[in-house]
Amino acid sequence: MQGGDLSLTGQLTYELKGSGKSALNIDGARVSLRTKGIIAFIVVILYVVVIGVTLAQQRATLRATVEQQRNMYQVEEALGRLNSAMAYAILNVNEAYSTPNSRATADTIALDIGAVQAGLQGLSERYPLMRQWVVRLDHSSAMIRAEWGNKRLVELREHLHELVTRLDDVTSEVRNRQQALTEDFRSVYDSITLTSVVMGLAGALIFGGVVIWFFSLMVRDIRKLQARATEVVTGYRGMPIEITRHDELGALMESVNNMQSELRERERQLEIARQQRFHQEKMAAIGSLAATIAHEVNNPIAAISGVAEAIQDQRISNMCTAERCRPELILEQTRRISQITRQLAEMTTPYSPEPQLLDLNALLRRTCGFIRYDRRFGNIEFNLDLDSGMPAINAVADHLTQVLMNLLINAADASRDIVGREPSIGVATRSSSGEVVLVVADNGCGMDAPTMARAFDEAFTTKPPGHGSGIGLFMCKSLIEAEGGRIELDSTPGHGTRVSVYLPRPATRA
């Protein structure tokens, strides 16, 4: 059996009244543009805060460096005052040692030593070793007062020179520390400047790049959406647009896809409805013609039948020999004509558009008997294998008739050019638990796997142009699914095709 193509003519205009999802129905997986803006604002604020914290830490380091420099300046000033006191004390000690009549006395030298001790006390908090010099100088001052003389002056001078050496080391250390702090200050200051410039430029470049990228994607998606909306309006019914966003624009893309899907589905339903109306109008025209023909034919058939019965009566009364009178031939052909007109009348009788209980086997016999008169079935052998125990089913009779006629016509087309065997079509029914099965099988050309996979597509056909409406199998599938059943296809290239239709059995009443 073969599928068919869908050829729609004209334009379909209608208002789309709702769909499964609203255009702005944002679910939990979506992030709105407003939320994205808020997130971007928060990220910018956090970036500014990070810059502020980094710069604050560096400024704190800078302030600590400045504080240490100030302390070093204070130490340097104290050392300067101490060195001045030391120089004055050494000068007085040398003068007292070298000049017998010097103005320097034990008291003046003690005062000089006291000034030096005061300076050492100021440095003792930073340099604890200075405390021992305070004690040693205090001891030397006491010895000078107790025993004035060159010996004590020499001892004091040696202590003072040793202290000068120690103070020179401290002064050198302070200067080195000041130089290191100056380098640290320059380094931290340069780091603050570099951090401010780099992080500012980096933030501007990153934020600007993200903004440009975001709006470029948005413009691209809007243009894509605009183009697809125009295509849908002009009749595009292909693949849906790919949704690459999870915001309002993505929801709008989804709505366009839903609209496209809804339009396609409604067009399918309209085409099916058009085919059904065409089928009904065709059957109604055949029925009207059949009624007229039956009316015109029945009168002469009645006359011929009457003559044949009269001849038969004469034959019975031996008024006519068997060689000359053969009324049974006339009666057989009149019964055949009556059967044909009765089949036409039964086949074209209007059915209810609503589901109703019906005899599937009787419907199959009528349909097969009617379609035999189509010239495409002239040399095809029909094999009916109908289950006599079939229960009544609840379905629309016209739908099943249309399905069966489509399947039989497809089977005849598939069997038209076979060679080496007589074409045949088998129609069978059987009952199983919960459903009844209708099988239409042919021994025609069959289908390969790719063709069979697309057989129920509405726009697919393997028939040559002009040899079918193209909606056959798709419409069969739609009608059967509307009845709550399903249709399955099994085909082997070169051997034939088997179509199985499964319909639900009506529920039994308790």
Report on the architecture of this protein.
There is one protein chain. Helix 2 (106-124) packs antiparallel against helix 3, helix 7 (360-371) crosses helix 8 (397-414) and helix 8 (397-414) runs antiparallel to helix 10 (472-482). Helix content is 63%, strand content 9%. It has helices at residues 33-98, 106-124, 130-146, 150-233, 248-316, 327-347, 360-371, 397-414, 449-453, 472-482; strands at 356-358, 381-385, 393-395, 424-432, 435-442, 486-492, 496-504. Among the domains are: 34-217; 352-510, Histidine kinase-like ATPase, C-terminal domain (Heat Shock Protein 90), CATH 3.30.565. It has a 5-stranded mixed beta sheet with strand order 2-4-5-7-6, covered by helices on one side. Mean pLDDT is 78; it is low at 1-28. By secondary structure, the chain is α+β, with helices and mostly antiparallel strands. Strand 4 and strand 5 (435-442) form a beta hairpin.
Structural class: alpha+beta
How much of the sequence lies in strands comes to: 5-15%
Count of runs of 4 or more consecutive helical residues: 10
Q: Averaging pLDDT over every residue, what do you get?
A: 78
Low-confidence stretches: 1-28
Element order, helices and strands? HHHHHHEHEEHEEHHEE
Number of strands: 7
**Biggest beta sheet attributes:** 5 strands, mixed
Query: What is the CA-based Rg, rounded?
Result: 57 Å
How do the strands line up in the largest sheet? 2-4-5-7-6
Distance N to C terminus: 42 Å
Share of helix, binned: 55-70%
Shape, please?
rod-shaped
